[in-house]
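ZP: hey, is the S-adenosylmethionine complex queued? I don't see it on the tracker
AM: it wasn't, my bad. submitting now with these inputs:
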Amino acid sequence: MVSYLPYERFDESRIWRIHQDYFQNVGLKAWRKGHIPYSGVSNFTEAYKKARLFVSNLISLQAQGTIRILEVGAGFGEFAKNFLSALREICVYEEHDFFERLEYHISDFSQTTLDELAESGRLDEFKELIHYKVFDALDRYSGLEKESYDLVMANYLLDQFPARIFARSKGRYFEKYLSIEDPQALIDREKSKGFWLSRGKWVKRLKKRHRFIELDIDDELPMEHREILETCFRRGKDSSVVYSYGSLAALRNFLTLLKANGLIVCSDFNAASKPGMDGCEPCYYGNSVAQAVNFEFLFKYFKQTDKLDELKHLEQGELGYQMALIYEDPIKPLHTMILTRPDYSQSLELGRIYQKVYHQNWLLRTLYKFLVEMQLACYVLLLFMLLYLFSSGIIGFL
Ligand SMILES: C[S@@+](CC[C@H](N)C(=O)[O-])C[C@H]1O[C@@H](n2cnc3c(N)ncnc32)[C@H](O)[C@@H]1O
C-alpha cells in the first residue's frame, strides 16, 4: 500500500520545497550529470539571437556609458558563455564598442551553484567583465541596484516558480490539489529492491495523485489577475489553465531593475490552456519541478496594465510597455518574451533574426492550431476542396 501525504494546494505542496532544496544545494552536478536539460535555449544559436536583438536596440538607442547585463537563474553558465561569445563576435564584425563597455552580472539564488561556477573556470575567458551575485528573482528587496541594468535575461527560470492550476467547468471553478507519496516510503521501497536514491533523480518516481476542489475564484485572486486569467480559458468549453503568478512577480521585479531603455528577455516553455480538467503536469528534472508558463496571461497582463505601482514614479513614454512574444518553434512550446519599461523611448527592435522567427512561426503556429483545434473545420475545408477539384475536372483529369 502506498503511503501518501495529505492533499495540499498544488503551489504549496511539498514537491516545491523539495525543488527549492534541490537547486539550493545540488550545484553544477545537476548539469554535469545531464539531469537538467539546457541546450534548448543556451546553445550558441539561441544566444546569438538574443545578442543580435540586444545590439539592434543598443544601436537604435545610441547607448552611451557602461552597459550592464543581469542574467538571472544562470545555473551552469552555458548561456552566459555563448551569449558573451556571440556579442563579442557581432561587435567585432560590425565595429561597435559595446562589448568593451560591458559588465555581465551572472546570478542565481544558489550560492553553491555560483561558487562552483566561479571555481569551475568555465567563464574564465570573460572573467574581467563577469560579476557573480546571489539574487532570488522573487525577492523584491534583493539589494540589487534599481534601474541599473540595460538587459535582464532569464532562461528556463520562469518555470521554476510555483503556479496554481485552475479548471473551469460549466461556469464553476476548480483548483488542483496534489498528494505525493511520502518520500521516506520511496526510500524504503528502493532500498528493499537494492537500489539507492542518491543517483539524484527520484522526484519523478514519487507516486503522485491529484484532484480538483471547487473554489470561489473571486475571493482567491486580485481582480485584475482574475479578469485576465478568465480570458485564457477556452471559450464555451471546459478547460484548465496555469496561473503563473510567480513568473509575474519575477517579471515585475525585473522591471524595477531596468534602466529606462532596458530590455527583459525570458525564454521558457509555454502552457497553453488544456481541454477538460487537466492537471497541467509539470516536468521533473533531477529533483526539480518545471511548470510550463502561461505566457498568454503574462502578455495580456502587461498589455492591459497601465503602469505597475512600483513604476508609478516614471514618466510614462508615449508607447507604454512594449512587448513581443516569440514562438521559437511552431510546434514545440518554447517561447521568448521580450518586455520593456513603459517609458522606453524608442520603438522596440526585434532584430533581424527574431523578426524572421516571429513572422514565420506565427504563421505556421496559426496553421498548426487550426489543424489541431479545428479538425472539423479542416474536414469541411477538405471536402470543399475535393468538391471543387471534382467539379472543375482536375481530379477526373488526373
Ligand atoms: C532549470 S535551471 C536553468 C539554468 C540556466 N538558466 C539554463 O538555461 O540552463 C533553473 C536555475 O534557476 C535557479 N533558480 C531557481 N529558483 C530561482 C529563484 N527564485 N531566483 C533565482 N534563481 C533561481 C536554479 O538554481 C537554477 O540554476
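AM: back. The CA atoms of residues 233 and 239 lie 6 Å apart.
ZP: great, adding it to the tracker
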